[in-house]
Amino acid sequence: MGPMIAYLGLSVTMLSLAVNCHSDRCLVGNNHKTLPSPEPGMQACTKYSQSSCCYANYTQQLNVSPLIKVNNMYWNTCGQLSPQCEQYLKNVDCFYHCSPHAFHWVNPNNSYSIIAVPICRSYCDDWFTACKNDRTCARNWITDWEWNEQGNRCKNECIPFHQMFKDGKDLCESMWSPSFNVSSSNCHCLMLDDNNDDIIEHPLTHERGTATPAQDVHQDVDRSPFCQQRYKKMQKKKIKAMKQSS
Predict the structure, then answer these.
(1) I need a surface site. Which of 28, 42, 59, 145 has the fewest CB within 10 A?
(2) Domain span including residue 233
(3) Number of compact structural domains in the chain
(4) What is the pLDDT of residues 54-75, one digit of tens each?
């Protein structure tokens, strides 16, 4: 069994286990509900409005651009982020605070953080492209700051994202500590610009309902009707976003 196929099988298995072990709940936090529920009037993160773990008033601070500060954390420590880079950070914040699915990957050591969320490599690559010329002083946006009563401050010099991170995989797996794990599959993984209801609801073993041998996973990912439909959906969404930004 080749290492790539074995890793792919592990990625799909971990996603399946995470989804099967938890029904939709909410993380524990100052801005989280106990259970997800419809939330009309959201000004941002609207993809979660039908089942949200955050209240509508939380999203008011995200509905601005340029965005300077969220709660007590400054996003402009190295100058204002570009709109396209800013949107990717908003997607992370929306997922963490508002997604009813984030709890599937709750950190077992504390109920207010997530760990090893399987994120799509293509999404991380697009994120890296969007932010590569923006500047940051922190490689890990959870730990690499000096904090005081006003908020976060740089400990290190500001450098471009493309110098801080090697590529999209490095960005996704480093910027938010162990929160995200880049999947070798672009089907059985999450895209943070989507509500991901389809991948959560899809049975993530085999479409016949039985466990899939690791050597068959690659073929399943590439050829299953579910994955082919998801690829098309992702491509249409990407083309639409490119047209809107041009």
Answers:
(1) 28
(2) 3-245
(3) 1
(4) 999 999 999 999 999 999 899 9
